[in-house]
Amino acid sequence: MTWFKLTGLWLLRQREIGLAIFIVAITAVVGSIDRGFLTAGNWNDILVRSAPTAIVACGVMLVILTGEIDISVGSLMAMLAAILGVMISEHHRNVGVAIGVSVTLLIGLLMGAFTGLLVTVGRVPSIIVTLGLLTALRGFTILMMGGTNIDGLPIGLTSLAKQGILGLPLGVWTAAMVIIATAVLITWTPLGRRLYALGSSRHSARLTGLSERKLKLFAFTYTGFLTALATVVDVPRLPKIESGIGSDFELLVVTCVVVGGVSIAGGRGRLVGVILAVVLMTMIRPVLTFLDIGEAGEKWTKAIQGMFIMLAIIGDNLIARRAKRGFRA
Amino acid sequence: MKPWQAFSRFRWWHEAAIAVMLAGLLVVAGWLMPTFLKLESQLLLSRQLWELAIVTLGMTLIVITGGIDLSVGSTMGLCAVVFGICFSATGSVALACTASLIAGVACGALNGVLISKFQLHPLIITLATFAAFRGIAEGISQGAAYSKFGAAFGQVARGSFGGIPYAGFLFAGLAVAIGVFLARTAHGRFIYAMGHNETAARFAGVAVDRYKFWLYTLSGFLAGLSTIIYVSRFDTARADAGKGLELDAITAVVVGGTSIFGGRGNIIGSVLGLLLIHETRLFVSRYWQIDELRSIVIGILLIVSVLLYRGLERKNRD
């Protein structure tokens, strides 16, 4: 009884191990039902689909570590995709891939900085700012695209995004680099450690002389830049650019960060957990397909997502309570 | 008493400011589009408002406690699907309405239990249920749309008495009841106390958890109620009912002067905020004939109003 409880709590606390066991178990079960799930092609597909989520999750994780939240990334991605499409499509401006990509990255960076400034200097709660941007940017995208889709992206970019380098698409390479860079940033640099410090206690961070504004501004700007990066490497993979790109993406990203063990109150969580959660969340759809539930199953994806967030936060909460009781005893 | 003291003691500055903005908007709109101010067309177009208005009342109370309910739109989606399924199973509109209300209460109660029992932040709990409720609605309905509820049921949203839609009377009744509850009863004052300082309220003996549970349940109930009006208006029940409604409701509350950190605000402000965003949307979409402008305007209005409010606050403190 007690050991059972203790093991459960330990697994909840070691979120990475729990998630890894879960992923392996699901793979084993689904793989034994349908061998097709174990093929390289399927896993390649899962990796490609998880790449943009992983890239943006690295940014949103930093935002949540500082105790804020960003739910505007999906709409931002749609806007950036439209801008990118208009600039590089041969049916539109056709200004060249290099210019188009750099301008998109710059706009993403600036939008992130803008969000950060509203939160830090404007002192508007991040949930309000990003909720407002969520609708405003989506509306702006629909307005800009005027009900049409954009196609005719340069072959060079689309083939890089689809076939890629050494058999792996551009998105997977980029995701790997972003993950390594973010891991180095939050583990070994003073900036990264300060983000943790700020999240675990704003008061102590201020007494230590850390600038809350600069740190939060950095987290939001980084997220904006990564959203642009994810757009650039993932969107050319799609047959055409629609205004509906990235809807519910923000929810998926926040789910991954929270399920990955990052405390929503800030200051606690590791990148490995977040990346495993991204893989787990991306697996939901292929699992439903391979279990042959078909169309009916796909409609449940969102419900399963919501359930995962709820389990994660309730689990976190139980641990926190247990820890508190432990201190008192 | 010196004159500037009377000035600073006047407690309705925010409401007065919104009323002036509303009047200004109406004057400009009436000048650009003479048909805009016609009473009949305004009453006719007010049909688009009532679902949002009813949900906003519950949202006001929750924001005053320092919480937030992001799940109201999704709750409406789930209620609409429950309504449709119940109607196609039994053929009775009354039963379907009851089922919709029960579903709303259940959704709200789930939020309430999770928030009060587990001491979790409402933001993240309702973000989870925001996904979960919509997901369940999509899952059980499988994208199906239910319709043909009969002409009599259509009158719930379309019918009117003396030119004013029935839903308008319902909203007025609810607004007065909740306004009096908030301003004139001890329970209402406790809600403000919770928003000001939850720990202090707890030490003062306020049953904070119980209030939270009931407020989120009320919010769910109101979502169920407005689903009935929504379904009646479109004569269709689908999983996408009320999509994005949470944003409009939060915007109305915040524009109406309720502090997003809790402890300040009232129903009159929310009603004025509601009218302001309703008229803004009507004007924008009728004058420029572009529907997407509505969401852009609402998003910007939300951010700018909080920004201004925070700016004023800082000036007062200095």
Brief overview:
The complex is a heterodimer of chains A (329) and B (318). Chain A has 329 residues and is mainly α. Chain A contains 15 helices and no strands.
Quaternary structure state of the chains depicted: heterodimer
Beta-strand portion of chain B reads under 5%
Number of helices of chain B: 15
Structural class of chain A: mainly alpha
The helix-strand sequence of chain B is HHHHHHHEHEEHHHHEHHH
What is the structural class of chain B?
mainly alpha
Amino- and carboxy-terminal Cα gap of chain B: 22 Å
Describe the structure.
- The complex is a heterodimer of chains A (329) and B (318).
- Chain A is an all-alpha fold and 329 residues long.
- Chain A contains 15 helices and no strands.
- Helix content of chain A is 75%, strand content 0%.
- The longest helix of chain A is centred in the last third of the chain and has 28 residues.
- In chain A, helix 3 packs parallel to helix 8, helix 3 packs across helix 12 and helix 8 runs antiparallel to helix 11.
- With 318 residues, chain B is mainly α.
- In chain B, helix 4 runs parallel beside helix 9.
- Chain B is built from 15 helices and 4 strands.
- Classes of the chains: A mainly alpha (329), B mainly alpha (318).
- At the A-B interface, helix 6, helix 12 and helix 15 of A face helix 7, helix 13 and helix 15 of B.
Which features characterize this protein?
heterodimer; A: 329 residues; mainly alpha; 15 helices; B: 318 residues; two-stranded antiparallel ribbon; two-stranded antiparallel sheet; globular
SSE topology:
The complex is a heterodimer of chains A (329) and B (318).
Chain A: H1 2-13, H2 15-33, H3 40-65, H4 73-88, H5 97-120, H6 126-145, H7 155-162, H8 170-188, H9 190-200, H10 202-207, H11 212-234, H12 249-259, H13 271-290, H14 295-298, H15 301-328
Chain B: H1 3-9, H2 13-32, H3 39-45, H4 50-64, H5 72-90, H6 93-117, H7 122-141, E1 146-147, H8 151-158, E2 160-161, E3 164-165, H9 166-184, H10 186-196, H11 198-203, H12 208-234, E4 236-237, H13 245-255, H14 267-287, H15 292-317
Antiparallel strand pairs in B: 1-4, 2-3
Helix pairs in contact in B: 2-14, 4-9, 4-12, 4-13, 4-14, 5-6, 5-7, 5-12, 6-7, 6-12, 8-12, 9-10, 13-14, 13-15, 14-15
